[in-house]
Task: structure prediction
Amino acid sequence: MKISVVKNIMEANQRIADENRQRFSRNRLLVINLMSSPGAGKTSLLEKTILSLKDELRVGVVEGDIQSTYDAERIGRTGAPVVQINTGGACHLDSNMIQEALKDFDIAPLNLLFIENVGNLVCPAEFNLGEDFKAMILSVAEGDDKPLKYPLMFHESRVLLINKIDLLPFCECNPDLIEERARNINPDLTIFRLSCRTGEGLDRWTGWLKEQIKQ
Amino acid sequence: MKISVVKNIMEANQRIADENRQRFSRNRLLVINLMSSPGAGKTSLLEKTILSLKDELRVGVVEGDIQSTYDAERIGRTGAPVVQINTGGACHLDSNMIQEALKDFDIAPLNLLFIENVGNLVCPAEFNLGEDFKAMILSVAEGDDKPLKYPLMFHESRVLLINKIDLLPFCECNPDLIEERARNINPDLTIFRLSCRTGEGLDRWTGWLKEQIKQ
Result:
């Protein structure tokens, strides 16, 4: 009984995710579902990425938070179009929230849409939103054991961004070990090391991102 | 329909939490449900706290993780009795998991039991386990906006430990702002600032903890 309820939720989510994906595809829009723990640097990465690419790409953002419009205001200051979802308690975004949020959001002029998920290294990994791929951020301040303990997130992501590398001298964290453990779970991961604070490594990420844009 | 399912889950959780609480109370055992984002320092805090109090208190630990026994092994090396729960995907502990885990775990000799929850700043706050109180850790590397975005965790906790203060010179984080925003949500919070890495501030926390032990 309990299992069939969960299955129905997941089936309904997948059906709407497929509808979202078709809409994105018709618009030749690259959509990235960005996930991480709270405070790993999702919004900072988006700010830096948008400002770096603003002359080349048209980027939009869907912001997911339990409450507040704090992150949407940060993104808004970059000049990018943004819509905020408040989940009102829910610990992840689902495909229906995305469909609702995009009803009055004009995706036609965009090349790239980021969906910033709720800060949570667990639940968001289970829900497809219709994205082209999932990307995750891990801050080195979180330690190098996270792939062992939160494997689904690493398994579902196509990209791993190891952020805050400027803090490496002050943290007990070996980024080689993060990469090794992450690749044991998902050998196909594309991995970037960067610091949104200092800007180190951002150009490799934005360069790679431009190659993914749909023509 | 959906709401009634959630209500039944929460009622069942509360009933078993009450049973756990009665068992803890009969044993004059102080039980703390420790919550945070992944990598904020829960296990490090427990290691330091156990080692600091080992001559005065008998401390046990229930470790909650989605998978792996990595944290339980770390705790085991301190000499404290420990039991590991693997949730197998679930993003929080519930009271039934605690009841099962403690069936063959001798709590009689203990003064203090820590339950280390799954690393998640959202879902664990919703589930009572039978603890005396909830304590949460926030790492300064996560930023000072977290009370705005994850208010339930701050609302439900009696203690806030602001960890990794040795990283403050390298992070854009104002700990006064964390305290102000957290107290706006929960004026009764007891707050400690500390660094598990350098040991700064740990003595205030362990001193306070000793005063909470049941006689």
About this structure: Chain A touches chain B at residues 5, 37-40, 65-68, 70-71, 89, 91, 118-123, 139, 141-143, 145-146, 148-152, 164, 166-167, 170-172, 197 (CB under 8 Å).
